[in-house]
Specification:
InterPro entries: EamA_dom (IPR000620), EmrE-like (IPR037185). The protein is mainly α and 282 residues long. Helix content is 76%, strand content 0%. The protein has one domain. It has twelve helices and no strands.
């Protein structure tokens, strides 16, 4: 159990770094492609990268009795993508990534109701600390963007539902099957609006799409395996690490400032994550 908790936390860190990287590429591709194209090709290239797993595991990989959970996860995940990609075009990268950090608050609530998982008191305190760290790390939103933040909050809720669904499937669905179905279904669903929002694409957009697909496949595998190894209520805290990666990407690629408040927030976030993980090792 101790080993699984540590592995789950490390895998979730890797996943969040990949997701922050996807956010950076989405922000970069804003203006180069429509949102429908970004969502479709992000999922399409991720599916292509998952096809070797189907070849390796054979058609047996697709056999499941829990297709309804795969479909549910794909729908919630795809909807959160549309919401979040839109928000990325309206806010700075680190600030946009921050709104998704509401999901660790929501995951334990959903896990408690759906999966009957009870987060410990230390976990709840650590989650609160992490949220304080987020408030320290990120600047206040610009005036007039309330509606953008509401869409971002909707995305955070959907992400929490998606992550809890992974945990619900963990007893019967291996990580590779879960990620393959997610990539397959989101690619199929996202092709529907594509003809209505098609525009010519430059080579830079294609490179960004390939990068999104690679990071998506790696991130989904890492996240799925993380929540298979450990309860969502115990490792969900590490979702906060995405703000660190987003802040670094924003600084290096868009010269978004790194302030003392941001550094203090990062320190609080990691301390909270450390407390959450260490509670099971003491």
């Amino acid at each position: 159990m101790q080993s699984n908790l540590l592995k789950g936390a490390l895998l979730l860190l890797l996943a969040e770094a990949c997701f922050a990287g996807i956010g950076a590429l989405v922000k970069y591709s804003t203006g180069l492609a429509s949102e429908a194209q970004v969502v479709f090709f992000r999922n399409g290239f991720a599916l292509l990268l998952m096809l070797p797993f189907l070849y390796t595991h054979g058609i047996g990989l697709l056999k499941t009795k829990r297709w309804y959970l795969h479909a549910f996860r794909a729908l919630t995940g795809l909807t959160s993508m549309y919401c979040f990609f839109y928000v990325l075009g309206q806010l700075p990268l680190a600030q946009a990534m921050a709104v998704l950090l509401l999901s660790p608050f929501i995951v334990p609530i959903i896990a408690r109701i759906w999966l009957k998982e009870s987060p410990s008191q230390i976990t709840l305190i650590a989650i609160a600390l992490g949220f304080v760290g987020v408030l320290l790390a990120l600047p206040a939103p610009a005036a007039g963007l309330t509606w953008v933040l509401l869409i971002a909050m909707a995305a955070a809720c959907l992400v929490a539902i998606t992550k809890t669904t992974i945990r619900a499937m963990a007893s019967t669905e291996p990580a590779v099957r879960t990620v393959f179905y997610f990539s397959l279904l989101t690619a199929v669903f996202s092709v529907l609006p594509l003809p209505f929002y098609w525009q010519p694409l430059e080579w830079q957009a294609w490179l960004a799409f390939i990068g999104m697909g690679a990071l998506a496949a790696i991130g989904q595998l890492a996240m799925t395996q993380a929540y298979t190894l450990a309860p969502a209520s115990d490792i969900g805290m590490w979702t906060y690490s995405s703000v660190v990666f987003a802040g670094l990407f924003g600084y290096f690629f868009w010269q978004e400032p790194v302030t003392m408040s941001w550094l203090a927030g990062v320190a609080v976030i990691f301390y909270a994550g450390y407390v959450t993980t260490r509670q099971r090792l003491w």
